[in-house]
Amino acid sequence: MNKIETSLPGVYIIEPRVFGDQRGYFMETWSTRNFEEMGLHYDFVQDNQSYSSQKGILRGIHFQNAPYAQAKLVRVTRGAVLDVAVDLRRGSPTYKQWVAVELSAENKRMVMIPRGFGHGFKTLTEDVEFCYKVDNLYSKECDRGIRFDDPEIGVDWGEVTRELLSEKDTYSPLLRDSDCNFIYGEV
């Protein structure tokens, strides 16, 4: 596996080694040993998968407040997305900054997103399957979101069709109005 730094410290693009021939391919998508050799120490406890039927569906920006904050290892198994991580840790040198990475079944890239970051994606194709591992269990009480179009963050999603947003994403608060409890150095 290859770890590529992004503009946000702690957020990494992971490129797995892919072994292929005329029959298809094989790759490891998670190996505790390989990740620890790259300096990434996570104990994932839950796998999640979502399906998006249409191009242009936007999901996010989502996170779970502490004490149920989650690190995520995300990837696409069908289709393609623009994947976004946003630093939500008050006091961080990169607070409110974001990074976007194209993830696709074709490029097989993954993104490692640590605790303290919001996450979202926009589908670039129809029929997208999105998979992610998390290092903390789901907590309804701590589940949060902030507006995908928060002007203080300014994620460039391209054109967004409001009809393709969930009710949660349509009515999520701006970061300044949210109860996001991430503090740099504490998450």
3D structure, described in words:
The chain has helices at residues 32-37, 167-171, and strands at residues 2-5, 12-15, 18-21, 24-27, 46-52, 58-64, 72-78, 80-87, 98-104, 110-113, 117-123, 128-134, 143-145. The protein has 187 residues and is mainly beta. The chain has a six-stranded antiparallel sheet, with no helix packed on it. It has a five-stranded antiparallel sheet with strand order 9-8-11-6-13, with no helix packed on it. Strands 3-4 form a two-stranded antiparallel ribbon. Strand 1 (2-5) and strand 2 (12-15) form a beta hairpin. The longest helix has 6 residues, at 32-37. The radius of gyration is 16 Å and the shape is globular. It starts with a strand and ends in a 16-residue tail after the last helix. The mean pLDDT is 97.
Please give a quick description of this structure:
This protein is mainly beta and 187 residues long. It has helices spanning 32-37, 167-171; strands at 2-5, 12-15, 18-21, 24-27, 46-52, 58-64, 72-78, 80-87, 98-104, 110-113, 117-123, 128-134, 143-145.
Helix/strand layout:
Elements: E1 2-5, E2 12-15, E3 18-21, E4 24-27, H1 32-37, E5 46-52, E6 58-64, E7 72-78, E8 80-87, E9 98-104, E10 110-113, E11 117-123, E12 128-134, E13 143-145, H2 167-171
Q: Low-confidence parts, pLDDT < 50 over ≥5 residues?
A: none
CATH class label? Mainly Beta
Average pLDDT works out at 97
> How many strand segments?
13
Bin the helical content: under 10%
